[in-house]
Structure formats: C-alpha cells, structure tokens
Design goal:
Radius of gyration: 19 Å
Structural class: mainly beta
Helix content: under 10%
Largest sheet: 9 strands, mixed
Number of helices: 1
Shape: globular
Strand order of the largest sheet: 1-2-17-16-15-14-21-12-4
Length: about 325
C-alpha cells in the first residue's frame, strides 16, 4: 500500500490593508517521485465538458481572444500598467499569421507557451501575451476547472490563470477568481485569490497560499490546480490532493461587508505580466528572454509559462 502523508498548517496573515491571507504548509510524500509532472490525472474525454490540450499547432480563434497594449480604458480614463504597475506590452498575431500565435505565445510539442521578452516595443521595455475566452466560452458553477501547467522562474515573472465576469460589471462588483498566481522569484509558494467589493478602494481580497517544501521546487515540475466551483462555495486543490489548500464560502465574515458575487458566468484569462505590485515591483531584466528563441539561456522553458491542458467539467 502506498503511504501518503498530507500535513496542512493554517496561518492567517494580513498583507496589505485589504488582503486576508490563509497560508497552508503542505507535505505530500508523492512529491518525492522522480517525475516531470505531478498534475492530476488527465480526464477521460467522455466525462469532460470542454478540454484543451494544444495538440494542434494553431491557437483557435474560435476559442481564444488576445488582449493587447499596456492597459485599458475605464470609461474615458486610460489605466496604464493594467492598474498594477505592470511593465509589459501585450502583443497580438500579425494578420497573415497561419497559427494565430506570436513570438510571445506559441504552441510547441503539445504545450501552450507564453514567454515575455526583454524587447523595446511601442515605448515599452518588455512584450508578453494575454489571451481570454470572453464572448467565446463561458464558465460557471457547479463545475470543476483543472489546469496542468509549469511556471517560469526569475524575478519579475507574474504568471496567472483567472476568471472575470461575462457581464459588463465594474470591477470588483462582479468578483474576480484568480485560480493561479505565482511569483517567479519564489520557488515554493503558489497562490489563489478572490477579489470582490463595491469599488477599487472599497473591496476585500482573500488569498490562499500553498507552501511546498523547498527541496521540491514548485517551478521545476508540472503541477495542476483544480477549482471546484459550487453555489456559494469555492475550493482550490493542488495536484491529486483531496483536501483543498484554500476554501471560501458565503459564510465568510467578509461577505457580511460585501455581497457574494461568484454565482455567475465568467470567462477565462491566461497571461504572464512583467513586474508590478504583486511582487513589490521587483524585476531582474537578465532573467527574461532577449529574443524569440530565448537564445540567452540554456533552457528557454525555464523562462516560459507552459500550459499542458485545461479541463472544464460541469457537475
């Protein structure tokens, strides 16, 4: 019989004034395996509602949109840095692109790869990519969403997989679900977060961090996060673990201050930001690719956010 040990130690921390962090320390003997991937077992296609494993070289325009530039308009006001002080300019494919990809995002060997590049473009020092399913594919409860991925390493990388409301609702009224956020500087912590509230300066953020022993090095291997999404309840699981590292329901005290917004339809976003407030604006320019083949490093995939597959299953 295989012996499994799972230890969760919960700590409650306050980061910024509005951030409430729940941190769990995880020890799981299965992580001692010599394997490239600790992801949850890939699902049987007959049981899934939507599955993407990037086996085609083309990124389907029927499933994915591109976000471009370094910010967005809030009414008539332009918000640079995507409101976070980010340094990258998000690019899009050229009109004659046969694969609907760019040097910042492409499909290689059955993986979707996003690589920021230290490159001057339209007045910015970095380029990267951000794609989304808005208007093409909706996600809602009751369901499970699992993503198998590997994060990049290096100070200044900010990879994320997250959900935003389909309805045109001013942030953060409709809620934001961050399935995964990672700091390239930190090798053994991954996090999820929920944002909600009335307006940008009157809101709450609940963060769930999972701490993995440093000898495992989270960034070296593929891992999966599963969001189990129920009415009035969200649970986040790492790899094949049966115990969530982060779980929030409508009874949380913060929902006495603000309404619970997560019982609605959302769309999916995948991106890699550069710098920004998530890691105190820290950045090491030498950690980033300098060109499309990332010729300045011996292992380019260490500088890329790699997605193996995405599974969406209605319950």
């Amino acid at each position: 019989m295989r012996f499994l040990l799972v230890i969760f130690i919960s700590l409650h921390l306050i980061a910024d004034e509005e951030d409430i962090i729940e941190r769990k320390i995880l020890n799981f003997n299965d992580h001692n395996q010599n394997t490239n991937s600790f992801c949850k077992t890939k699902p049987s296609l007959g049981r899934t509602s939507w599955f993407e494993d990037f086996k085609k070289s083309k990124l389907l325009a029927s499933q994915w949109n591109y976000s471009i530039s370094n910010g967005f308009y809030d009414g008539r006001k332009y918000i640079s840095g995507w409101g976070n002080g980010e340094l990258q300019y998000y690019t899009k494919p050229k009109k004659n692109s046969n694969t609907n990809t760019t040097e910042n995002i492409f499909i290689e060997d059955g993986y979707l790869k996003i690589q920021p590049i230290k490159k001057y473009f339209k007045g910015f020092q970095y380029t990267s990519a951000r794609i989304n399913t808005k208007g093409l594919k909706d996600f809602t409860y009751p369901s499970e969403i699992t993503i198998c991925f590997k994060v990049p390493r290096g100070i200044g990388f900010w990879p994320a997989i997250w959900l935003m409301p389909v309805d045109d609702i001013k942030w953060p009224n409709g809620g934001e679900i961050d399935i995964l956020e990672n700091r390239g500087r930190i090798t053994n912590i991954s996090s999820s977060a929920l944002h909600f509230g009335k307006k940008y300066n009157d809101k709450s953020t609940l963060v769930g961090e999972v701490l993995i022993p440093k000898y495992l090095n989270f960034q070296d291997k593929f891992h999966s996060i599963t969001l189990k999404w129920e009415m009035d309840k969200l649970s986040f699981y790492l790899d094949n673990h049966s115990t969530p590292y982060f779980q929030v329901d409508k009874s949380h005290p913060e929902f006495k201050k603000y309404s619970y917004p997560f019982n609605r339809n959302y769309y999916l976003i995948i991106n890699v930001a550069v710098g920004g407030k998530y890691d105190d604006y820290l950045i090491d320019s030498e950690a980033f690719c300098k060109d499309s083949p990332c010729s300045n490093t011996t292992n380019p995939d260490d500088r890329r956010f790699i997605i193996d597959w995405i599974d969406y299953r209605k319950l």
